[in-house]
């Protein structure tokens, strides 16, 4: 993690400098000051590079003079169209170009304190690295950037605006860390233990083990877990930001007292490794299934973000944590399990396991907490990648207001979602001859939709949205705000949803 600092706007005497410049705008402020110091050299260099300040455009000047080692110009596009997300992507692009410099500054004349804070957020998110297990990385291959100073006309205001954004960044980084961990390290038990660390932020955390879930009757979740030697867990996290502090209960096996009234609820699929079980996956690419817990990772990161910025909302996060393995004790295709809701399920494909995990946790969430709404996140289906690629998460919802708010939050943060259909015709595809339902539809057609229809049977009419993030949780190439690997998708999206509509 790099350090983001704020200082009064002044031309640095050494190091590296990034200039965020608007499209077609004249050089002003520090850019004009630098151009004067270089006797017009900055303007000439930008002209030679055909740099016009268009969004995502950049140019690099090496050893330009005035004591600077490097100057990076990044386009903001038309300033009257600038959004917070545009500022973030510009800050991220600048940081990506400055990784070989130990310390660097970013300046953007004409941007207010809030926009500069978002540029700092982008720089921090783009500089994330997961090098925990790399022991032979050569020095020249390591990023050197440790600190980025945002130069602002009102540094104090920009610093204040950045404080809640820094909490969100910490939540994203926590999610990325969890998703990046190998499955031999991040078992369900270990992931539950890491969720306990949120207690330091004021989150009440309860951990349910196998015996607890057997008593509850979590037959669907436990059926998935029974083939693994790694014991399952369910974690319930409560942030009572809208409840007076003196009324908070203590974390533990008992619920926080008093129970939150109509909290917003988030549920995550946490399959820490998915072999497919008896319906085993092909060997090629199976290593990617370490991040089949990304939905749960997002929920944990979101709870850290909400608590870290002291969001004025009562929020509950629940994650079902299992490992799906083949063994002599593994669930078989054709088995029938009884879910916590009492509904029975014929398991025709043990690789359609995430929906079984979510079924029990969703029912528990709505039964215990009477939520205002529920949003679940899961790397649920490969079918959603076929439909939407890696540009949008699939959104399914039984509530139009919630769906529209999620779509708007996605556009605002750059974590886009695309609404997919639900309907009776799709629901009939999971009707079953020997149980209340089966866990897959008929063939491959509409696989992400039938999976969502399955989940809908466990929300009991509560306002609900399902985000299938299978195409978004992991990047095989660098993204606007993330390096290759775990993206942390969903933390910023859902934090924005809460901030815009559900805080007191």
UniProtKB/TrEMBL annotation:
Protein name: Probable cytosol aminopeptidase
Residues the entry annotates as binding Mn(2+) 2: 269, 274, 292, 353
Keyword vocabulary terms for this entry: Aminopeptidase, Cytoplasm, Hydrolase, Manganese, Metal-binding, Protease
Cofactor section: Mn(2+)
Domain spans labelled Cytosol aminopeptidase: 349-356
Function: Presumably involved in the processing and regular turnover of intracellular proteins. Catalyzes the removal of unsubstituted N-terminal amino acids from various peptides.
Taxonomic lineage from the root: Bacteria, Pseudomonadati, Pseudomonadota, Alphaproteobacteria, Acetobacterales
UniProt-listed Enzyme Commission number(s): 3.4.11.1, 3.4.11.10
Catalytic activity annotation: Release of an N-terminal amino acid, Xaa-|-Yaa-, in which Xaa is preferably Leu, but may be other amino acids including Pro although not Arg or Lys, and Yaa may be Pro. Amino acid amides and methyl esters are also readily hydrolyzed, but rates on arylamides are exceedingly low; Release of an N-terminal amino acid, preferentially leucine, but not glutamic or aspartic acids
Gene: pepA
Similarity field: Belongs to the peptidase M17 family.
Example GO molecular function: aminopeptidase activity
Protein species of origin: Acidiphilium iwatense
Enzyme class: hydrolase
Compartment(s) where it occurs, according to its Swiss-Prot or TrEMBL record: Cytoplasm
Cofactor note: Binds 2 manganese ions per subunit.
Predominant subcellular localization, coarse grouping: cytoplasm
Active site (catalytic residues): 281, 355
Binding site for Mn(2+) 1: 274, 351, 353
